Amino acid sequence: MELYRLLQQQGFGGRKECRQLIEYGLVEVNGEVVDNYRAQFELADIASLTVDDEPWPVVRGPLYLLLHKPANYETSHKPNCHPSIYRLLPDQFSNLDISAVGRLDVDTTGLILLSNDGQFIHALSSPKKLVPKVYRATLKHEATPELIAKLQSGVYLNDEAREFAADSVAQIDAHTIVLTITEGKYHQVKRMVAAASNRVEALHRESLGAIVLGELPAGEWRHLTAEELAAFGF
What we know:
Blueprint: H1 3-9, H2 15-23, E1 27-29, E2 32-33, E3 49-51, E4 54-56, E5 64-69, E6 99-100, E7 109-115, H3 118-125, E8 133-139, H4 145-153, E9 155-156, E10 163-164, E11 168-173, E12 176-181, H5 188-195, E13 200-208, E14 211-212, E15 221-223, H6 226-231
Parallel strand pairs: 7-13
Antiparallel strand pairs: 1-2, 1-3, 3-4, 5-7, 5-15, 6-7, 8-12, 8-13, 9-10, 11-12, 13-14
Helix pairs in contact: 1-2
């Protein structure tokens, strides 16, 4: 594949932009400057790629990413009042049609998955899949046995005709609970807690299916592992 086409595939812009990057001597492949935009490379042979003195991860197929979303970031390509979560990813990814699997509210933190594989996004977003999502909620008022019982047995949400129940609820301390849900209604955890006569002060998603956020720092991202993808059948 000609190098400029390979750069296009990697998300570095259109034909003209990629040719100029190469002709200006701004592209290094495997540690060597390449200024011929028609130079031939196989993707499998590229161990390292540097553009304008900045190392870039080589994209070798569809992207499957895990991001630790900080507070005050919007899950949107066109944010209104806060920066977009996509600004936390490498610039080149902005040209690769990456979208989030579902959304997290501006003030909600934790695990969010992103991909440019439409089948993957649909499979994990579909309510029919019943993918478990684990949230840690900090409450305004102390958690009582009555609140736990309501969340487990089901509560009615405004504008919904049926009850919604958590798959499991565990109390961590006086003001902290961990809930597992398999549905994804708008503001579901916050609305469920409110319907049980309390209020969520902070919300953090710890896991989605078999994928756990772990110790990844806020604002950082990583690729999903082959084992994590296999757990979802990919």
